[in-house]
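Email to the structure team, subject: RNA polymerase sigma-70 domain-containing protein model.

Hi all, the expression group asked for a predicted structure before they design truncation constructs. Nothing fancy, just the tokens so they can compare against earlier work. One-line instruction: predict RNA polymerase sigma-70 domain-containing protein, return tokens.
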Amino acid sequence: MALACLAVVYLAFAGPTTTIRRAFAPPAPAFAIEQQERAPDCVMSAVPAPASVKSSQRRNRRGGQLVSWYFNTISATRLLTAEQERTLADLIHAGDAHEAVRDELALEMGRRPTDDEWAEKLGLETKDLRRQMARAHRARDLMVAANMRLVVSIVRPYLQPNAVAGGALSMEDLVQEGSLGLLKAVNRFNPARGHRFSTYATWWIRTTVQRAVADQARTIRLPFGKSRLLSKAKRTHDELQQKYGRKPTEGELADAMQISLPQLRVLLQHWHGVGSLEAPMQVRNSASMKSTLLEAYKVRPQQQRAPQDVVEVQLVGECLRQQLQDELSPLEAQVLQLRYGLEDGDCLSWKQIAERCDQPERQLQLAQTRALRKLRKQHSLRQLHQFCDHPEWEQESMGMTSRVSKVG
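Reply from the structure team: attached below.
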């Protein structure tokens, strides 16, 4: 969709690009609109592109490089002088004034007026009105085509390398959003204020792109003001890190941004983006691990249990732990829980248990022997027998108790 829109934009500007070269080539005056106005409106779209553009078009269409072809095309467009910008702006404003009269006339008549009625309202001949509107449309196309390079230069800093994977806007999307800002600048530009069009258009383009990034680049949308503040925090963080040679503290970052520490902490909650469950996992031994987060945390159907079964299994674990605490010393109970995985299902080695308990391995092995001897008694773990009649988890729960009730 984005590439198609770029193609439409270029096809709209292919004719005006050629017109710029002809109109602004010396020794012609400002430009040759006076000669072009005698031609019908379809002439602009029918003007053939230069040979280099046509050959580039064929090559890039075959290679699928539409974006590169588009950028190369707009880079060949000549920039406008200040005098040319004023002349084009006057033509655009004249066309806008005529359209405003047409809208007022439509409200009065309750329908869209004809060209004759529109021209009569303006006190013009119909052919003169059509000629002036054609000149206004051509002037707007020329202003846009000659400043598309400005759009590309402004949107580049907002391009992220992982645009597709991370949800950020691609280069094509950013150019389209910047083009909307350029159109607003063309319609609002007033040369009487004395500044160049590029200076005026930069603000509109940057503002439009920033709003698009704030609204569309994140999976969870942030308000525009908070998004700009978050961008400022990232820039300030990078500047302080480069200045101090280390990561700045929260206090230093808050002071540099002139905000309170609680406000900064709330802002930092949105620092990181949203990860994808289908993103590949960065693990050392990828052969023994799942390839994505979704696969790693996916529960297989045979492992799913009804809620009542989950509760009963939890009761078994609580009862088992209580029995161990009643029958054994704290060290003996801890050794059995770690050795046989009674806490989280992971059975630890003697070395791991020694590091966890800060005890010699031999002393821990003796504690296990004493614990198993105590649990061989007939009355030990008797309360767990009531759970052994459930058909769903009998095998699993018995496996837990058999680890401590059987003598190895």
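The CA atoms of residues 211 and 267 lie 18 Å apart. The first helix runs from residue 2 to 23. Ping us if the truncation boundaries need rechecking.
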